[in-house]
Each structure stands twice: as structure tokens, then as C-alpha cells.
Amino acid sequence: MSNTTPVIQQFSEVGLNDELLKSLNEAGYQQMTPVQAMSLPLILRGDDVVVQAQTGSGKTAAFALGILAKLDVTEFAPQALVLCPTRELAEQVAEAIRKLAKNMANLKVLTLCGGVPTRHQITSLEHGAHVLVGTPGRVLDHVNQNRLNFAKLQTLVLDEADRMLEMGFQDELRAIVAKTPNSRQNLLFSATYPKGIKQLAEQVSKNAQLLKVAEAPTQAKISQVFYQLDDTDSAYAVQQILLNQQPQNCMVFCNTKAEAQRIADKLIGKGFSALALHGDLEQKDRDQTMVQFSHGSARVLVATDVAARGLDIAELDLVISVNIAHDLDTHTHRIGRTGRAGAEGLAITLVGAQDDYKLRLLEDDFAKPIQLQPLPTAPAASKPLQSDWVTLQLSGGKKDKLRPGDIVGALTRDNKLTMQHIGKIKVQSNWAFVTVEQGAAKHALNLINNDKIKGKRFRARAL
User: Fold this and answer.
1) CATH number of the domain located at residue range(s) 389-462 in this protein
2) 8 Å CB contact between 71 and 351
3) Which pLDDT score is estimated for 335?
4) Please, which residues have CB within 8 angstroms of residue 49's CB and are 6 or more apart in sequence?
5) Tell me, what's the pLDDT at 369?
6) Average pLDDT, the chain
7) Less crowded by CB within 10 Å, the N or C end of the chain?
8) Which range scores top for mean pLDDT: 78-87, 166-175, 187-196?
9) Lowest mean pLDDT among 79-83, 93-97, 342-346, 458-462
10) What residues does CATH 3.40.50.300 cover in the chain?
11) Using one digit for the tens of pLDDT, what is the confidence trace for 4-52?
């Protein structure tokens, strides 16, 4: 397995067509990341690869470009299948592929995930798609109902394979792989490389090249601080840290669903703009939570590790771990969410008595012994983190031909709201979300609910 970080190359050096190079330029891609420079030439050559690389390393673009480079848009059948552990990640991957394929005419990317009605997916499958992105359970359901024909499949991607194994998808993965052509190209990406991943890789491909991509230099810009929790209530400790640090946004990781919900409830009760994210929430609630946090209308997200998988926030000021994670790879994954894109990040870990053994293991990766510090006391004048934004949900999406520009047009039609009042916009299959300033929310709701967009009436509500 190679541990060498290659010399960064330009995308123009690997033989990509003009359409993809144009999309890369329009998307702001400059140089390849190490994972792209190491894996993309092999992927484009048609090799099977197993890549160990951290989240945020650019792996999605690597396999997306590999898929799109050999895709035949005139062949309206599934030519690539990407399997992801969660719906959130699948949606993100599908969006990334669409972004890179924007200059390829008539290319269709379809997501097949649980949490949404099957009938919409069945209709979409009947119309055909070039690239399928989905979760193992829902994809296998379509396979078992003979709704998928993999005769033309060229590429199989297992993204975040370690999480799929952790979530118990071994049997589903095995069943899906068995239905795909033996001639397929296999691409497996994983943040860690435990024994189970090695076994899965051998089942999927006997001759895959194994690549271990060195962590990006940005990791060095993450400062880690460890606070002694003692008998202090963890929710109170998190509250004091947030008041003390005043981050623009923060993710708080908990080892259990109950703890995540309890801490979120405590923070909300103290006036913080906070939300919980864990497996007990219904899919629609998880979707709404993800959108609110990524759009900035909630500033604190208290989450379990599996639920937060696939949530990609480009700029995250602070990560707090309530107790050390169950394993050290997960701890590394948590702290790696801050300090991305070269920015400086801060990761704070609350260490309880039960963490002593894990702390000693973690210490092996540090040049010096870890020093536990006393919990800071928040300044008296500090205020709870609140958001100046609110996210609105519209009762229509891509199926209604709704586009971000249509929503902007509806909100600015009477010239009372400008682009400064409007934040991020996300359009999904059946819903759309737009974030607006708190003071503009009432007027924005009136504009949408009392008029038409593209000749249709939509209902909007504040989340």
C-alpha cells in the first residue's frame, strides 16, 4: 500500500475531455488534491482501486470524474452505481456529480435512498438514468423487484465503505455486487482500513491497487484541547465552552443518541440556536436539520457520529467531543471536520473518568503527553449563540422544475428584498429550502404563499 503523497498535478494533465475541464474550471477547482492526483490517473486507466483517505480529501471528485470520463450519454441505461452509507451523503455525491456533468448534455443522475416514497423512484427508473447513487438497502430493494438492469454497468463505487460495514450493510453489499457484471470497474473509498474493509475489497475485486493517501497538511492547523469533565454535567460543560469561544458554528459529537438529544434540549432551553441529529429522528426531520445547520440558521449541531456522516460543512469553527469516541479513527474523523480548506480549526474534547484508557491510546499519536485542562468559565457578559437567519421550506422542488433563480425572483419581485436578505438555497426533488434574514422572513413567506412561481402556487413555512 502506497503512503507517498504525489506531486500535485493539474487536471488538464490527465486527459479529461473539454466538457469536464470546463466544469472543473467553473466549479473553481484549481489543482488536484493528493487523493485526486494519486487515484485519478489509475481510475481513468480503468484500474480497480481501494483508497484510504479522510473525508474532505476530494475523493468524490476523483471517482465522479472517472465515471463521467467514460460515460456514453446516448446509452440511456445505468452505467455507474455509487453506494453510500446514508441518504445525506448520497444526495451530496449526486449533487457533486451533476455539478461536474453540467456541460454534458442530457446526462441524468438519480438518487435511490430510503426515507422517500418508492413510487417516485420507480417512475424515474422507468425513464432511465446514466448514474445511480444510493444507499444499499433501497438499491437492493429495487434490485429484488427487478427494477434495475445492470447489463450496461461499467463502474461500481463503494463510498465510505467503513461506515457501510459499521451500519451492518455487509449482506446488502454482497447481494448487490452479485447482480453486477464481472467486467465492471471497482472503486472503494474508506476513511479507515480495518479487517472488514480488507475482506470486502477482496470480495469486490481480486486485483485492486491499494492506495493510502497521506493526510492533508491542513490537519496540522487543527488545535486540540482536552478538558477534564470530572463530575460536571456534560451539557453545562458544552454550554460554557460555547459561551467562552463564541464560534460562528459548532458541531458537538456524542457517543449516544440519548446524550445528543439531551444536550441539544438543554442548549435550546438556554437560548442557543441548536439542533439535534441522530438515528431516532425521521428522515424528513434529519433533512431539515441538515439544511438548517449547513445554511447557518442553526449555529450548533449536536450529533452522533453515524447520523452526521455525509454532512459536509466547508467552514466549521469548532468541534466538541463529549467524551472520546468509541475508537480512535472516529476521533480523528471528528476533529478533521474543522480546519478544512487550509483554515485554522479548534477541536475540544471533554474527558471523563471512563475515557482514561482511550486517552492513553490517543496519546500515542502525540509528541507530548496530553495535558488535561480545567473547564473554562464563560465571561459574565457572553450571550448564547443565536442565528440572524431562518430557513424556509417550499412545497415544491426539481419535480416541479423549480430552480434557485425562480425562488430569488419570487423574493425580489417587489424590490423590498435584495440579494443581501437571501442566503443559501437548496432545491431537492420534492422540496426546496431558502434561507433569509430573520427580519425578512415574514415578508418572504407572504411573497411565496400569496403569489405564483412559474405559474404554480407553492406553500412555504419557516423551519
Assistant:
1) 3.30.70.330
2) no
3) 84
4) 39, 42, 43, 186, 187, 188, 208, 209, 210, 211
5) 86
6) 88
7) N
8) 78-87
9) 342-346
10) 11-212, 217-373
11) 445 557 888 888 889 999 998 888 887 888 889 899 999 999 999 999 8
Q: Which three cell numbers stand for residue 71?
A: 460515460
Q: Which residues lie below 8 Å from residue 295, measured CB to CB, with a gap of 6+?
A: 389, 391, 423, 424, 426, 433, 435
Q: Which fold has domain 217-373?
A: Rossmann fold (3.40.50)
For the stretch 132-152, pLDDT in tens is: 999 999 999 999 999 999 999
Dihedral of the alpha carbons of 289, 291, 292, 293, in degrees to the nearest 10: 90
Least Cα distance to 358 among 318, 334, 330 occurs for: 330
Q: Give dist(CA 151, CA 162) in Å, integer.
A: 27
Rounded to whole angstroms, the Cα distance separating 184 from 120 reads 28
**Nearest-angstrom CA–CA distance, 214 and 42:** 17
CATH architecture of 11-212: 3-Layer(aba) Sandwich (3.40)
Specify the domain boundaries for CATH 3.30.70.330 within the chain.
389-462
